[in-house]
């Protein structure tokens, strides 16, 4: 008997028929003798619908001003789907109980709309499991020290599931979604993308942080920190397929590097349309400038991603960086009000129509010329690179948004990702 955590995403929970299917699948696992904890997302579209209603009522306010209420609101999506799943399981003859995050409790910090899990008390859940119940725990939410409901950021149910698995030392955490694993790139953009049987934890971490939303980045961080056996697989297979076959399907996140050493140099391509570029032009080229600009941005709790500073001409330089698109207007206002006047900079230019495309692979550590190959492939397509950022196992470029699909397809081909793995 093993302790297994299943997570089902929004599409997998998208209708009563799908919820019934999830219930039948979970019941199959429970009847095979496993202790089951299930973490569902809200039904697909529900979180967007709820957040959209909030925006209708306060279009001009930044959402950070009413974060607490957004979390009260958005958390209802998972509360509903969890209760529905418990009802469906009972309909399948399984004893089942659902808990909201605060009832477990899953304790988080107070950063509304992007809270971090701090601890999970598993006493109540263990007691239910011992009594033979399937336990459903809402994804995406927790409770802070003062008793306010919090949410974990979009896609956060992945993190809830892995954190529960880590806290309970589960034997495995299975992330059921609408694709049958982690692919070389988003299969909705490149139909030739291939499923990876395994992907190293480090590559998965990069891919998640660079925009592959198949797993939320914090879920991968948790998996790495607590060595949670993690697998991504499809919820769209027939619920009654052989359990052993199902348990081996999809993509396994691995922690041993050696296994991947012989494989492709580049394992995957990620892309992200969520960023915007800001350039401060005509900045005096002297010590402390980066701190002056980015310090003010950091003080406003705005995350900066890619940064470049050009060489100076006549003692002046241009300084560019990217932020999340949601933070774009706020960053520009802040720079105009607080930074430009004291800096003697002349102008700010912004571009919200950019995207970041990245190649990822642990093989990049031991191979040279990979970035050059990326740049050549983009130049052959006539795509201009605006910014570049690299780390040991990834190279990212910022390009015009309209070339995103072309760039991803070209790179997918250039690095032979559509060919079968060796
Ligand atoms: P869920 O609702 O189950 O959490 P998400 O929509 O959050 O599902 O994540 C699954 C989606 O991630 C897929 O439908 C796919 O379009 C997208 N995706 C992006 N990059 C990848 C990738 N490399 N491999 C698989 N899916 C990817
Ligand atoms: N329902 C939340 C969202 O749509 C959390 C999740 O699905 O993981 O972002
Ligand atoms: Mg998701």
Secondary-structure map:
Layout: E1 3-8, H1 16-31, E2 35-40, H2 46-57, H3 67-91, E3 96-99, E4 106-108, E5 117-120, H4 123-130, E6 134-137, E7 141-143, E8 149-151, H5 157-167, E9 172-177, E10 198-200, H6 201-209, H7 217-226, E11 230-234, H8 243-247, E12 251-254, H9 258-261, E13 268-272, E14 275-284, H10 289-299, E15 304-309, E16 316-324, H11 328-343, E17 347-351, E18 354-360, H12 370-380, E19 387-391, E20 394-400, H13 404-414
Helix pairs in contact: 1-3, 2-3, 5-7, 6-7, 10-11, 12-13
The structure holds adenosine-5'-diphosphate (ADP), aspartic acid (ASP) and magnesium ion.
CATH architectural category of the largest domain: 3-Layer(aba) Sandwich
* Main beta sheet: 8 strands, mixed
What share of the residues lie within helices?
A: 25-40%
The tally of helices reads: 13
What structural class do helix, strand and pairing data support? alpha/beta
Radius of gyration: 23 Å
> What form results from the Cα inertia axes?
globular
What is the assembly state of the chains in this entry? Answer: single chain
Small molecules (ligands, ions, cofactors) in the structure: adenosine-5'-diphosphate, aspartic acid, magnesium ion
Task: Report, as a whole number of angstroms, the end-to-end distance.
Answer: 35 Å
CATH topology of the largest domain: Carbamate kinase
């Amino acid at each position: 008997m093993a302790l297994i955590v299943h997570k089902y995403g929004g599409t997998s929970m998208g209708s009563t028929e799908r919820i019934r299917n999830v219930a039948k699948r979970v019941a199959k696992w429970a009847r095979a003798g496993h202790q089951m904890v299930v973490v569902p997302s809200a039904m697909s579209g529900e979180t967007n619908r709820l957040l959209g209603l909030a925006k209708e009522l306060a279009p001009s306010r930044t959402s950070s001003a009413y974060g607490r209420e957004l979390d009260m609101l958005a958390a209802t999506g998972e509360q509903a789907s969890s209760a529905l799943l418990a009802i469906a399981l009972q309909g399948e003859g399984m004893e089942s109980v659902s808990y909201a995050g605060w009832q477990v409790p899953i304790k988080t910090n107070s950063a509304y709309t992007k809270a971090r899990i701090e601890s999970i008390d598993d006493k109540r859940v263990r007691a239910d499991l011992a009594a033979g119940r399937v336990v459903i725990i809402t994804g995406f939410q927790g409770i802070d020290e003062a008793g306010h409901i919090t949410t974990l950021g979009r896609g956060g149910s992945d993190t809830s599931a892995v954190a529960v698995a880590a806290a309970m030392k589960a034997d495995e955490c299975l992330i059921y979604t609408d694709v049958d694993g982690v692919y070389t790139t988003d299969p909705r953009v490149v139909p030739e993308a291939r499923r990876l049987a395994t992907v190293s934890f480090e590559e998965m971490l990069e891919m998640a942080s660079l925009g592959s939303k198949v797993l939320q980045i914090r879920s991968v961080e948790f998996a790495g920190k607590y060595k949670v056996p993690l697998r991504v697989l499809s919820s769209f297979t027939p619920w009654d397929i052989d359990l052993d076959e199902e348990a081996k399907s999809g993509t396994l996140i691995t922690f041993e590097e050696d296994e991947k050493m012989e494989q492709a140099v580049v394992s995957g391509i990620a892309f992200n349309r969520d960023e915007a570029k800001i350039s401060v032009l005509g900045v005096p080229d002297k010590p402390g400038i980066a701190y002056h600009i980015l310090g003010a941005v950091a003080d406003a709790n705005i995350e900066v991603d890619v940064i470049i500073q050009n060489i100076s001409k006549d003692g002046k330089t241009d300084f560019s960086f990217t932020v999340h698109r949601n933070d774009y207007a706020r960053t520009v206002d802040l720079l105009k009000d607080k930074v430009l006047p004291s800096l003697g900079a002349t102008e700010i230019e912004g571009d919200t129509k950019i995207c970041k495309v990245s190649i990822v692979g642990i093989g990049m550590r031991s191979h040279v010329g990979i970035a050059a190959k990326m740049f050549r492939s983009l130049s052959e397509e006539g795509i201009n690179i605006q910014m570049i950022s690299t780390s040991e196992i990834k190279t990212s470029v910022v390009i015009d948004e309209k070339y995103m699909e072309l760039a991803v397809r070209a790179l997918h081909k250039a690095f032979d990702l559509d060919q079968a793995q060796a």
